[in-house]
Design brief:
heterodimer, A: mainly alpha, Sodium/glucose cotransporter, B: about 100 residues, mainly alpha, about 5% strand, elongated
């Protein structure tokens, strides 16, 4: 069978599996639609959370990013795992005890205010749509690369699949589909990683392989060899970072706290039966996430080492087969500036902007570009996603592994998109409709509204995927920064202080959100030319500014709450109840 | 000592929880922001196999410690809760009363 047939087979089989699960676990009540009835086993929930959390970006892009950032890539590794400690220790058990459906539910009830609930809904919808636009685009790109259909058609197919199991199954359907998706994606990630680790170091465990000697008889360690080869080519060492310490510190913190404040992650802990299950479930989620996140840095280093060794100074004619393959897919480009036929890698861009291929071929058979060349010696353009996508070919793995990676990338993108769609639809049907505008709505009416809201959200997300506004890539930092600066402090203070009141929480959320939004928008949208370290506040990049936003939120909230009336007595009782683990009930119909 | 003097089981339970949280959050900070970022240059002088130690903490070690922290917290809290008779694994407690909503 050809690789292409295998890809159709694997992707088709995995889709049939997801749809079958969706039919078996159809949601019949709002409780099942929003939180799967609150009866999910903590290990199962942990696995679903891991799939929900790990997006197309984690699966496809992260290893490539780290490969080119070296030590600086640690911000993603620590930032996107450390947040689970905050979740498990500071938020999840208490929110589970609170026992309702959504994050705005908690904020609206704890701060006895429809305004606070609405502010939370606005934060939630903004964060989720920013995130989901990237996911739908990811679905389209994986489809177009592996199934050879246009990106737009890929987005439509992806929308159809997500529609089927998110709208039908609600949280219950999503949870069990995500378990299947986790298994597909982790298997697809680990198989090539293990083979590459074996190939480079002789050690099958990538986590140990990265700390081992290269199996070429030189006796050098992997990182040592990588450092040496990069320095040789004029780059900084892999294990040294380019970012300032304060920036690495702040980005890591913003990603951690943002993770803990992301609504689609928090809501997963509403689905387990008990408070103690919420804690254990966060632990399991991190175990399942760590399987991929501890493997990723090894994949990065091996891929970079392989890439340097096989490409640098190599004649184009002698390049490995995957080079031409990915050149045909627009992910690699080579511009022979010095005319010697060898591919030279050096720091800096090979040419200006993203590659624009012409239809012609050059003297050595390479694809020609219309981009203006730069002054530097670098001749090779590489899309970073290639580090994961090309791994199976670099390691000479059989076609079924490539098919597996395609199915894994789709699983990662679809599972995250579905989780995000669910929080958007429940924010609309539950928080806006049931709790704010139409309190008299029936259970059946609310369920129907939730399905309609999910459908509408899928259409909007699909349109964002087909017509990506230029700012999508620019504002990914928004989602984490805004979650860190708005939702996290409001939830944290609501649990750990009795004195925090309506006025303090609203003022804090608005101040934190406003500051972070303006800072990121200024450097990313309105004045991107000024986005250099010299102009940053205290040297903190827009990616890390959510931490300062969070501190502002805390400071304003505490000051305003001291100056205004304390919360009513029943709020004190509510906080007492939240803090006591005994007696958590499944979220019921109100 | 303040533990015994002031009132209810809930209060002393909450204080024990906060004390545990402070210790675990300090470790959380120490392995990631401490060893992985602030002290990295110093730690990189030591090697763990082929890993410079600070680099290892940043890309491997901190993740493993995070997992251990969560499971330890889960275990230790359960013990604290049982001591204060506040745990949630009493089968008579209405933990699974999803009654009419499931189905």
């Amino acid at each position: 069978m050809t690789t292409q047939t295998l890809i159709y087979l694997f992707v088709g089989a995995s889709f049939a599996l997801y749809i079958g699960i969706a039919i078996l676990s159809r949601a019949g009540s709002t409780s099942e639609f929003y939180v799967a009835g609150g009866g999910v086993n903590p290990v199962v929930n942990g696995m679903a959370t891991a799939a929900d959390w790990m997006s197309a970006a984690s699966f496809l892009s992260m290893a490539g990013l780290i490969a080119f950032m070296g030590y600086d890539g640690s911000v993603y590794l620590m930032g996107w795992t450390g947040g689970y400690v905050l979740l498990a220790l500071l938020l999840a058990p208490y929110l589970r005890k609170f026992g309702q459906f959504t994050v705005p539910d908690f904020i609206g009830t704890r701060y006895y205010s429809k305004v606070a609930r609405t502010v939370a809904v606005v934060c939630l919808i903004f964060i989720s749509f920013t995130y989901i636009a990237g996911q739908m685009r990811g679905v389209g790109i994986v489809f177009s690369r592996f199934l050879e259909v246009p990106v737009d058609l890929g987005v439509v197919i992806g929308m159809g699949i997500v529609f089927f199991y998110a709208v039908m199954g609600g949280m219950k359907g999503i949870t069990y589909t995500q378990v299947a998706q986790y298994c597909v994606l982790i298997f697809a990630y680990l198989v090539p990683a293990i083979f590459i680790s074996l190939m480079v170091t002789g050690n099958p465990l990538p986590q140990l392989g990265l700390g081992s000697q290269v199996a070429d008889g030189s006796g050098m360690y992997v990182l040592q060899k990588l450092d040496a080869s990069l320095v040789d080519m004029g780059f900084a060492e892999y294990t040294a970072g380019a970012k300032s310490t304060i920036d690495v510190f702040c980005i890591t913190a913003a990603l951690m706290i943002g993770t803990a404040g992301l609504p689609h992650v928090i809501v997963r802990f509403f689905t387990v039966p008990k408070v103690s299950d919420a804690r254990r479930s966060a632990g399991w989620a991190l175990v399942f996430i760590a399987l991929l996140y501890s493997t990723a840095p090894a994949v990065s280093a091996f891929a970079r080492l392989n890439f340097n060794e096989t490409v640098d100074q190599t004649q184009y004619a002698d390049a490995p087969g995957w080079f031409a393959n990915w050149e045909d897919n627009d992910l690699i480009a080579w511009r022979d500036k010095d005319g010697d036929g060898a591919m030279d890698i050096a720091p800096g861009d090979a040419f200006e902007g993203a590659p624009v291929y012409t239809e012609e071929r050059g003297a050595r058979g390479e694809r020609l570009l219309s981009n203006a060349p730069t002054e530097g010696a670098n001749e090779v353009y590489v899309d970073r996603d290639i580090m994961v996508l090309a791994n199976p070919e670099i390691a000479n793995l059989p076609g079924w592994v490539i098919a597996l990676v395609a199915a894994g990338g789709l699983a990662a993108a679809l599972s995250t998109a579905a989780g995000l769609l669910l929080v958007i639809s429940s924010a609309v049907s539950h928080d806006l409709l049931k709790r704010t505008f139409r309190p008299g709505i029936t259970e059946k009416g609310e369920l129907r509204a939730a399905r309609i809201a999910a459908t509408a959200a899928i259409v909007v997300a699909g349109l964002l995927g087909i017509y990506p506004p230029g700012w999508v890539a620019q504002v990914v930092a928004f989602a984490f920064g805004l979650a860190a600066a708005s939702l996290f402090p409001a939830i944290f203070l609501g649990i750990f202080t009795m004195r925090m009141n309506r006025e303090g929480a609203i003022a804090g959320m608005v101040a934190g959100l406003g500051f972070t939004f303006l800072y990121i928008a200024w450097f990313k949208l309105w004045n991107p030319a000024a986005n250099v370290p010299e102009n940053w506040l205290l040297g903190i990049s827009p990616e890390g500014i959510g931490v300062i936003g969070m501190l502002i939120n805390f400071a304003i909230a505490l000051m305003v709450s001291r100056a205004t009336a304390p919360p009513p007595a029943e709020i004190g009782e509510l906080v007492e109840t939240i803090r006591t683990p005994r007696g958590a009930t499944a979220p019921a119909v109100h | 000592m303040a533990d015994e003097s002031s009132g209810s089981a809930t209060n002393s339970y909450w204080r024990a929880n906060i004390r545990l949280l402070c210790i675990l959050m300090a470790i959380w900070f120490a392995v990631s922001f401490g060893a992985g970022i602030l002290l990295r240059d110093f730690l990189d002088r030591f090697m763990l196999g082929g890993y410079p130690l600070g680099f290892w903490f940043a890309q491997q070690g901190s993740i493993y410690v995070f997992i251990a922290l969560i499971f330890y917290y889960s275990w230790a809290m359960h013990r604290i809760e049982r001591r204060h008779a506040l745990d949630d694994d009493d089968p008579a407690a209405p933990a699974d009363s999803s009654d009419g909503t499931a189905q």
